[in-house]
Amino acid sequence: MFKKALMRHFFIWLVGKRLLKSIWSQNLFLYVETDGKITGILPLVHIDSLLFGNTLVSIAPCVYGGIVASDDQSYLELDKEACRLAEELGVDCLEMRNRVQKNA
């Protein structure tokens, strides 16, 4: 199941990277590595426009596209980094499009 979800997100990343770069401000792709293996990914888009406001969104053009992680620790690290990044960028909103939200 994880490999299937990871491949879906990787495809979105490949296609979305070009598409989003031409539309929105900044694309960010966070990941967690444990023992030389990627254990979590989080694609983010920083949108700063009159239409959408100043927001940080996990994969903006998709319904779901939030954190994908193989363990809770990687999930929480990505969630924490997204919150830190939102504060650093001074966005009005951080929108995480995870299927299931976990409490930090």
Question: What's the layout of helices and strands?
Answer:
Elements: H1 2-23, E1 26-34, E2 37-49, E3 53-57, E4 68-69, H2 72-89, E5 93-95
Parallel strand pairs: 3-5
Antiparallel strand pairs: 1-2, 2-3, 2-4
Describe the structure.
The chain has helices spanning 2-23, 72-89, and strands at 26-34, 37-49, 53-57, 68-69, 93-95. The radius of gyration is 13 Å and the shape is elongated. By secondary structure, it is of the alpha+beta class. The protein starts with a helix and ends in a 9-residue tail after the last strand. The chain is built from 2 helices and 5 strands; from the N terminus they run H-E-E-E-E-H-E. It has a single domain, classed as Gcn5-related N-acetyltransferase (GNAT) (Aminopeptidase, 3-Layer(aba) Sandwich), CATH 3.40.630. Strands 1, 2, 3, 4 and 5 form a 5-stranded mixed sheet that branches.
